[in-house]
Amino acid sequence: MKFYGKTMMLAALLALTACSSSQEQANSQSAEAEDDTCGAVQYQNYVGKPLSALDGVNIPQQVRTIPYNSAVTMDFNLKRLNFLGDSEDKIIRVYCG
C-alpha cells in the first residue's frame, strides 16, 4: 500500500508541476505582449543584420539606432523603437524603451 501511495503522490506532484510551468509561460507571453507598445516584435527579423539595413526603411514611430559603445540618453519611452548594435555593427536586439 505504501508503494501505491508514493506513486500517487508523485503523479499528483508531476501534474501540479506541469500546470504551474504552463501558467508561467502564459504569464511571460502576456507580459511580452504588454511590453511591446512600440511594435518591436514585427522588427525582430532585423536581428543579425547590419545597422545599415535600416537605411531607407520607413518606420512610422520614433526610432533610435544605438551603435556599439555609443552614448544615449537614459529616458525611457515605451513608444520608441530601439535597435542595438554590437562591435561588428550588427543588430543584436530590438526593443521598446
UniProtKB/TrEMBL annotation:
Lineage: Bacteria, Pseudomonadati, Pseudomonadota, Gammaproteobacteria, Enterobacterales
Keyword Signal recorded: yes
A Pfam family recorded for this sequence: Inhibitor_I78
Keyword Ligase attached: no
Superkingdom of source: Bacteria
Keywords: Signal
Protein name per its UniProtKB record: Peptidase inhibitor I78 family protein
Secretion signal span: 1-26
PROSITE patterns in alphabetical order: PROKAR_LIPOPROTEIN (PS51257)
InterPro entries: Prot_inh_I78
